[in-house]
Amino acid sequence: MEKRLLQIKDVVLLQHPFIFLFVLALSFIVMDPFELSPVGGHDFKPVKNDIAPYKQVMGSWPWDNLSRLGQGNLEFKDDIFGPESLEFDNLGRGPYAGLADGRVVRWMGQDLGWETFATVTRNWSEELCAQGVDSTTKKQWTVESKCGRPLGLRFDRKSGNLYIADAYYGLLVVGPKGGLATPLATEADDKPILFANDLDIHHNGSIFFTDTSKRYNRVNHFFILVEGEATGRLLRYDPLTKTTHVVLEHLAFPNGVQLSKDHSFLLFTETTNCRIIKYFLEGPKSGKTEVVANLPGFPDNIRINENGDFWVAIDCCRTPMQEMFIHHPWLRSVYFRLPIPMRYLARFAGMRMYTMIALLNDKGKIVEVLEDKKGDVMKLVSEVKEVNGKLWIGTVAHNQIATLPYPLQSH
């Protein structure tokens, strides 16, 4: 029987040379022998993702048809580089921001401007690391692992210490006066922390933070998305024993972290799967998880406001082609092995991102959605922090901060 099938296959290929050439070309693309594709040189293994159906999410989402986020203001343009996370200290000073050039900086007011508050490594030098407006481009990537890339920032309100999740140097802390940060965690379960991303501080002193991938670092973060790999972890650092524990694993691009107002649970974003997950810390569900919200785009950081609601930054939106890729990993194996630059492949797939932010309550109900479809204020967003009647909006990819009075004034 097997011999007969092989004979039929040979006849088909000989009688239909176009099929033969197609199969040959497809095989060549998949093997990518000259590593001409965007994933060339990587052990690229696309997998199927656990994501809510496209039509279900997009059809029920409360869109902001007025694109009200476009009413915001741009601040510090080309004066601050890739401010992923924003923080304010106990005295109300700030914002503090972690930059693409490896520094944590602090705004000192109009007269003094920005000052360097902390660095995460002794390797940092102005000559090596300070690329100015080029800090958010590929020029920085060659030195990023040496200079550091501070992502999540949190102040401990009791001690005044600033905790930092750095993409290359793990979890660190620096005192209220700043300076060189002290490393706290660089591995968990004998596995290196390859991509520390965000954190929050429990009232018992524990630090919950995300390690986005065991396979790819921050420079290669796009491979985590297109591959769909789920090796990320939620970790907990215990300051009493100075040990780091794995809380959850097998996560697909775990990103932002936020404890609830009473610290009975935490929320974290899973970027690849476009959702927010609740992890229970107390009560009958302690240690369990549930999906709180499925989102129309890719979430980054999540932050609580004074009312106990949660702002989430979203790069929008998912596309029908992405839905097809999710359910058919082999298509990604072929598509992303085409000898075409990644930016064009992403564009052909409909991935034209714009900024959306959403406010949801502790049950996952959407309270507010603000969009900037034209990119008038922000093209890619990483965090939203509500402070004293104003939204402060950070971005990992551009050289600015956006602000918007909130609640919005009705016209």
UniProtKB/TrEMBL annotation:
Locations listed in the record: Vacuole
Domain of life of the native organism: Eukaryota
Predominant cellular place of this UniProt entry's protein: other
Transmembrane segments: 12-31
Classification via InterPro entries: 6-blade_b-propeller_TolB-like (IPR011042), Strictosidine_synth_cons-reg (IPR018119)
GO CC entries: endomembrane system; vacuole
All residue ranges annotated as the Strictosidine synthase conserved region domain in the record: 197-283
GO function term, MF aspect, one: lyase activity
A Pfam family recorded for this sequence: Str_synth
Main enzyme class: lyase
Keywords: Glycoprotein, Lyase, Membrane, Signal, Transmembrane, Transmembrane helix, Vacuole
Listed EC numbers: 4.3.3.2
Record family assignment: Belongs to the strictosidine synthase family.
Protein name: Putative alkaloid synthase/Surface mucin Hemomucin
